[in-house]
Amino acid sequence: MNTRFSSLVTIKKSAVDKSERAVQNANKDFHNATQSLELSYSSLGAMELPKSGTIAQMLASRTLINSQRTQISHHKEWVDFASSQLKSAKEKLKLDMIEYEKFKYLELEEMKQMIKQKKIEEAKELDEIALMTYKKTS
Question: Where are the domains of the chain?
């Protein structure tokens, strides 16, 4: 049974589906970012500082550590960005779901009204048929 809200419900459903895919993608990006950050921390922890050697080896080791720290800060920024993207995607999904449920409810209420009206019309028709058959038999 189609109502005036049926097309809106399908549009809102597609918006919810799109938002769900966006949340999944944002969640995947956030997961990748946290994995990269953890990997960077483990790489920094695995680095061994030279206890003896030439000054060039010490400077090279220091450069590697600074590079790894820079990469860690970059990954932290990526995690923060991915987290904010995930949060905004979840908010959009929540709003889209509210809109979808609202129009679905309105569609359901209109269907109930249509069914009620149809029942009233059928009752009137049955009453008319009963009156006509009663008049013929009397």
Answer: 6-106
One-letter-per-residue 3-state SS of the chain? CCCCCHHHHHHHHHHHHHHHHHHHHHHHHHHHHHHHHHHHHHHHHHCCCCCCCCHHHHHHHHHHHHHHHHHHHHHHHHHHHHHHHHHHHHHHHHHHHHHHHHHHHHHHHHHHHHHHHHHHHHHHHHHHHHHHHHHHHC
Query: pLDDT of 86-122, one tens digit each?
Result: 999 999 999 999 999 999 999 999 999 999 999 999 9
Quick check: 86 and 23 in contact, CB under 8 A?
yes
Measured CA to CA, the distance from residue 61 to residue 50 in angstroms comes to: 7
Cβ distance 30 to 86 under 8 Å?
yes
- Distant-in-sequence, close-in-space partners of 69: CB < 8 Å, separation ≥ 6: 44
pTM comes to 0.76
Q: Are 14 and 99 in contact (CB under 8 A)?
A: no
